[in-house]
Amino acid sequence: MTRSDKIAVFKDYNLNRHYETKHAEKYKNLTDAERARTSEALLTKLQKQQGLFTKLHTSRDAATKTSFVISHKIAKNSKPFSDGEFIKECLVDSAALICLDRKEAFLNVPLSRRTVTRRVEDIAGDLEFQLRNKSEKFDFFSLALDESCDVRDTAQLLIFLRGITKDFEMTEELAALRSMKGTTTGSDLFTEVNSCMDKLGLKWDKLTGVTTDGCPNLTGKNVGLLKRMQDKVTEINPEQKLVLLHCIIHQEVLCKSVLKINHVTDVVTKIVNFIRARALNHRQFVALLEEYESQHSDIGYHTTVRWLSLGKVLKRVWDLRAEIQEFCEKKCKDIPELSDAGWMADLAFSVDVTALMNELNTKLQGKGLFVHEMYSLVTAFMRKLKFLSSQLKGNIVTHMPTLKEVTPSADHLHRYSSMLEALHGEFARRFEDFKTIESQMHMISSPFTCCVDNAPIDVQLEFIDLQSDKLLAEHFKSVSLLNFYSSHKDENFPHIRRHAQKMLVLFGSTYICEQTFSVMKFNKSRYRSSLSDDYLGAVLRISTSDIQPDFSALTLLSSGCSSAVTFPDTVTSGVVPLVCCPTLFPDGVGSTDSGNGHSSNSCKKVSNPTAVSAGDATYLALT
Questions:
Q1: pLDDT, tens digit (0-9, with 9 covering 90-100), for 303-325
Q2: Most distant CA pair in the chain: distance in Å?
Q3: Does residue 144 contact residue 160 with C-beta atoms inside 8 Å?
Q4: 255 within 8 A of 298, measured Cβ to Cβ
Q5: Quick one: which H or E segment has residue 263?
Q6: Which residues of 28-66 are buried (b: 16+ CB within 10 A; e: fewer)?
Q7: Of 182, 302, 334, 609, which is the most exposed, with the fewest CB atoms less than 10 Å away?
Q8: pTM
């Protein structure tokens, strides 16, 4: 017989027999007033007993919630799970000094390594659950994809999601980290992406665009991931075309190759390696800088994979050129380029150009940037290149501060002008994919200045209405783009809203993926190489998420159920709570399969001794 069957046999006969056997002799001669006073006294006694358990539950739940909050901060800041024990030790010692009477409460906070591991897993699950609920409300979404290897050479595919609702609420979150032990072909990547979308309940017909770093397995024309994704979308809707973009920042970095400054970077690398490769040389060079009270205390290596590294190293070598030359002479290291005026002019030009590119790169970095904002920065930079090229042709170096210090020859300036023109051409070539959607981006970012004739047919009449509304024009100047479009009534501008959603949801770069890979390499380093892929994914989800975990729900879930039974503040005359007899109710009235006792939010009053369903508190009438 099941537990529910046992509860079902609690009928009038059983309860009456219990009352007649145990309580009738004691209460049968009481008047109504006495019955009411007795009921009140019994209820007060019961509530005092329950108060003890309520305090215990409250204290326990507070300790559990604290454990979740601290575990969340540990993962958010990429700290080892074992740091929970150290944090607890600090809390206990602090409590002993500040509030000795609360020391016991801190001792009860569970923060062992295994506990923190479970907490991190639960928090990541809660964030994924919330993201799945948000995904159901998306009108459109786009993806940013990138793949890299961790310290154990496991291929890790990062999938970031940016979705937009009908109210223009934007969500940008990590959709999944997919660990790939075998091959990473376009077919393998497509399988992982498809699985991720299914898990989050994302529909292919709502996918607007995909942004990648341009790897062949991602962008292959025949069997690459993007080709397979476009084919999948075409199967559902033949007229739907994905916007496939190559990360703006990656392309900006790749454009440097046309400058042909290897003769400069090779010598700079040689100088830096001479100083940094041997510890003695490095110490002596640092001492020399301290002696001259230089504004720089050291010189750094150039790392190709670091976007800003080249410009910073070139600038540092230029600033320390006198100290470097003196140091090399003391060490009998011949660097003839440091005395060559032509090479120094090339170095000065390289410093100025890489500084401009570093400035652009820094502006392009960041989370939540819209694609039209990033492309406008690129177009502005291209205009600067044109302008600087024309100035150099005219022997004007006003906007090249480093180059001004060496007074280069006219031949050098003409060569530098040609290099800037080549750089401009490379930018124009590499950003052709953005050029194809330039008119749509301009239409959404500047709706009151765009040309109606160039707009898609379905929005032309709506744009005429929009541009004719002076109130909307003033409103556009005072609010953000998201707020502006969200304020439009769907019945007035349905197609404009739809186009705006599709453009605003696009990723302009995979910066967020690169940033997350940095977090991944910090977490799964050679000192924590045994960190499993599941826990790595949990840590990355927590560290990158803007969603706040539901700590209260997590605490309740961890506790298993709600706490002790609660009763009404007042008692009806003639009704007294029944304290369940272990003999009569071995499982307790209202016991559940979870073994947590009575329910706290499902109390009932009964006027006659009768059975109530599981999860209800039972009252026994004395009448």
A1: 766 667 888 999 999 999 999 99
A2: 120
A3: yes
A4: no
A5: helix 262-277
A6: eeeeeeebbebbeebbeebeeebeeebeebeebbebbbb
A7: 182
A8: 0.78
